[in-house]
Amino acid sequence: MRVLFLACLSPKTGNCTTAERIRNHIVAAGHTCVLYDTREFNSASDVSSLMTQEPRFEAALAIHLFKGGRLLLDLGVPFGVVFGGTDVNEDVKDEHKRAVMEEVLRKARFAVAFTDALKEQAEALLVCESKIYVQPQGIETKVALHFSWSDFLHCTGVRTKHVENLHVFLLVCGLRRVKDPLYLLEAFEEWHSQNPLVVLIIIGPVIDPVFTAEVEESVKRSVGVFLAADLSQEELHAAMQKSFALVNSSLSEGMSAAILEAMDLGLPVLARDIPGNAAIVEHKVTGLLYSSPQEFVSMSRKLLDDRELQERLVRNGKNYITTCHNSMKERITYQKLVETLH
């Protein structure tokens, strides 16, 4: 079977990583799966013209009910959809977008949510039949072998003679407003002034250029907070492994791949207490959830001083990934679901 797969493919984002992994699952089942960026299409008619080309697509799949799903509505082939996060967390607030997403759910053979909470939220906010399956993201990490931590810090602007004593809090996110990377800036600056060995490094691809300029300007004026140049996935995983903790400060999340990757790499996680994060981070068990910048600093201080807490979070986080985010289980689920598109 030849499957068209639409997703937002901004390089080095969680969405892109997820899409490539799902495509690999489909290809491993013997199908052809062609991945396209939703931003290449202005309307459903653009996708329709693609469908007339030979060899023809027999089925379709999309990540994000509005951005991707709306483009599949009139194709005349069976399709499935995967919830992204902003579709349920943000787009449902718009009457038009919600109506479109309900239509997508009506016509889709199946829909996949990453968490039970996301499924429940979708069922509460959208009119949909019980065709939503829950499949947590499968996680795979790979660390670059020849990554220089000191070079990375130097290029980022971190100047210290005591690299080995530095405690780096790494905030990994695509630079757009919903990720709220400046949320902790003032509180972290104040903490850094008291303890110069703690630094916050924000790293991720540019998604919103206007917002990125705001972040650059704010970081430039700050002390103890830095903005790093984007890295390849393997280099990013190496940087995560060298950091003290992974930070998430998003306003909303579907399921943060960075949080899951950090757990897999043995890194403590400090995440903003929002539904998407609370679904995968159990407070004081697999990570720490904070509700304000001040609470973040308080928890970070505690984490720095409590070796037993560090080890417990790392151990439990790794066990959670092994148990709940197994890539082979994810593969089996998607291969079974794609069979329903025949």
CATH architecture of the largest domain: 3-Layer(aba) Sandwich
Mind describing the biggest β-sheet?
Answer: 6 strands, parallel
Cα end-to-end separation? 8 Å
- By secondary-structure content and strand pairing, the structural class works out as alpha/beta
SSE order, one letter for each helix or strand: EHEHEEHHEHEHEHEHEHEHEHEHHH
Q: Tally the helices.
A: 14
Strand order of the largest sheet: 2-1-3-4-5-6
The overall average pLDDT, rounded, is 94
- Rough shape? elongated
Strand content: 15-25%
The total beta strand count reads: 12
Any idea how many domains?
2
Low-confidence stretches: none
Helix content estimate: 40-55%
**The level-1 CATH class of the largest domain:** Alpha Beta
Cα-based radius of gyration, to the nearest Å: 21 Å
Q: In the CATH scheme, what's the topology name of the largest domain?
A: Rossmann fold
Determine the CATH superfamily of the largest domain.
Glycogen Phosphorylase B
Protein name: Glycosyl transferase family 1 domain-containing protein
Keywords: Glycosyltransferase, Transferase
Domain Glycosyl transferase family: 163-319
GO molecular function: glycosyltransferase activity
